[in-house]
Structure formats: structure tokens, C-alpha cells
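Handout, section B. The chain below has 397 residues.
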Amino acid sequence: MVARTVPYNSLKKGILRQIHQPLPLSQRESQQLLQSITTSFRKNLDREHPWQASGTSTETRSPEASAQSATRHHVTEQHLHTILSNPLFSRPRNVDFDISTPSSLIQKHFDVFNSAVSKGLMTPRRATGFLATVRSEILAKSPENIGERIGASGAGLQVLRWLRSSGFGNSFEFLYEPALVKLLVYFLYAEGLQEVAWDWLARLAAQGAQPDMKNSARVISRLLSAIANESSGLTDNNQASLDGAYTALARANDMFPHEGEAAANALKFAWSELSWTSTVKVLEHPKPTTTLFDDFIDIGRPFCLSLHSAHLHLHHPTTPTVSPAIEYLRHKSLSPDISSMGPRTQQHILCLVLDAVNRIGDSERTGWLLRLKSNLLEQLNLGFLDADHQIRKTLMR
């Protein structure tokens, strides 16, 4: 039963001396009124949810009473935390975080987001639009220190709170939106909340392929690729070192259950994506750390992706070797028709040929490679190109 508040008569006698007293109150009277109300509220709160029962010491209370009191107080704290962490009760963090971003524009996007949340109209796709718009506004003003200014916006935290309060965060439905996954992980890393993404990844990998997780391997690999990408900061700098991405793949490999088929397929897909970046796009990145690169190659051995393995050995940061590439390409030269292969595989094989020719550098030994190169160029309708960098540039379009 809730205790009664201070009777009005006591307020009337103390502060509100006359009911027809003209308003507003003076500063001193306003402060007295606030103090009286606050004191009354605190007394009622202490009475309903005491830290310990009134007039009873900790030593004399029974274990049952102590447990009951602790549980009641814990539930109360949880309830208050849930309310206060709801996006409806929060304001964007550091909206006017610096002079390089007009706070009014950022504030407008937060207001639209919160309005949609309050009306039950927010969806993963709309949340994607919110993050994309905030990033565009910040980037349009200046590309300098973009990561710091993105982190100061608090937009990722705002979406994260909505996901938790709406239930989307528990069902992982939002992961079916590829654009949202990429953008949200980007914001979470910028705001120092990357462990949230890792927690999602661990829970997804642990639960495996569930009936309500259609294409779970693709969903997991999409999240892992986004994490690896942000671990190296590739979104803001596409020529950054890949060391962070290799480290992320190693962490995921240690974390994923070995018996989980969905997790294994996801790791394989994410590994091949990073392998593509490490070889076909090798000119865009500095040399990686040798130990991390070796660990990355070892992670991919069970996948038996010979094309990727051959190309990675060709681009080893300290001891590159052309033998695996030659062995792979000799086998391909026996049946050089690659028209039945997918475009990505065609591009990969051609880049491997170009890199192998450049690595050997002996025209007598590379005669068959040059013929294979010409054959592939003709099949890909790229015969008019005769410079390696022009070919790579065309393939990257």
C-alpha cells in the first residue's frame, strides 16, 4: 500500500500561506516547494523499497526477509533501468558535438527517428535510412576525423536502444537487412560499442541453423564480414591495413563451434571475401604483418580453396612463392575455357595469371602463361587491353 503524501494543509501552512497568493512564486518559495515535494517523495520511496527494513538491523533480519528485500529492490532497479534506457526517454548524445556538423540538422534526424519510434513506425529499413542520413550529413561537412565525429553522434547507440526495446535485437530480424548490418556495425565501432556486434555473432554461431533463421550461414557471414571490415577501418579508408581484419577472422575462428555447419560455412565465406581483398586488391593495401597473414592462410586450409590459397602464397609479405600458382594454372591451361565460370572466378584467375607473370619475370618460362593470359582476355572480351594495371582497373569496376 502506497503511503500518503504530505497533506496539503501542511504545505499551505508552510509555503502556500494563502491559496490566492499571486503567481509566480518567488525563487525562495519555489525552492522550498521543490524541497518539500522531493522530501515527501523520498520518504515514500524509502518506505516502499527500503534498503533494509525500518528499525531492523542487518544482523537481526532473517535470511528469508533479506532475500525478499534484496529481490524487491533488484526488480525495482531493473524496472527503472528499462524505462530510462528506452530511446523515448533519451536524447541524442552530444548532438552539437563539434562545429563541423550543423547540430540543427543532426537534431532533426534524431527527432524524426524518435517520433517514428514513439508511434511504432520504426523498422529496420527506416533505421538504415536514419544511420545513412546521419553519416551523409557528417561526411558532407568535412571528411576529416570522420570516425571521431561519427562516434560522437551517438546514432548507433540510439538504434541499438530501439532494437532492444522493440524486440528486434532478440530475434535478429534486423540482420536480414544487409545495409543495416553494414552501417550499424560501422557506427558501433566508431562509438566504441563493437563488443555488442561480437555478442550477436557469438549467439548466432552458437544457435546454428534454426527454423526461424533461414539462410543462417549467410546472415552470420554478413555480420562477420562487417566486423572484419570495421576492424581494419576500411569503410573510411579503403587503403588501410588488413591486420585488423585478419585478427577478427582469427577471433571468430576460435569462437565458432567446430560442429556448427552454419558457422563453418559463414567463416568460409567471410574468409574468401577477405582473401579476395588480400590478392585481387592487393595494390590498395600495405603489406600485412607476417604472423597474422600466416594465421589467416592456416584458417583457410580446411576450406580447400586452391585458387585462393595459390594467390595468397604469391602475395606473402615476406616469402612469396609462385609454385602453388604455377601448379594451379598448369592444370587450368589444360582446359582454358572459363566461360562456364562465374564472373568473379574469371576475374580472380586472370589476376592470378597477371601476378604470376610479374613474379617470374622470365619470358622463356612465362611463354605458356602469356598464351593463357591472351586466351583469357579474349574470352572476357578484354583483348584490347595490354597493360596489367588497365586490366585490373577494368575488373574492379
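Note. The mean pLDDT is 77. Compare this with the example in section A.
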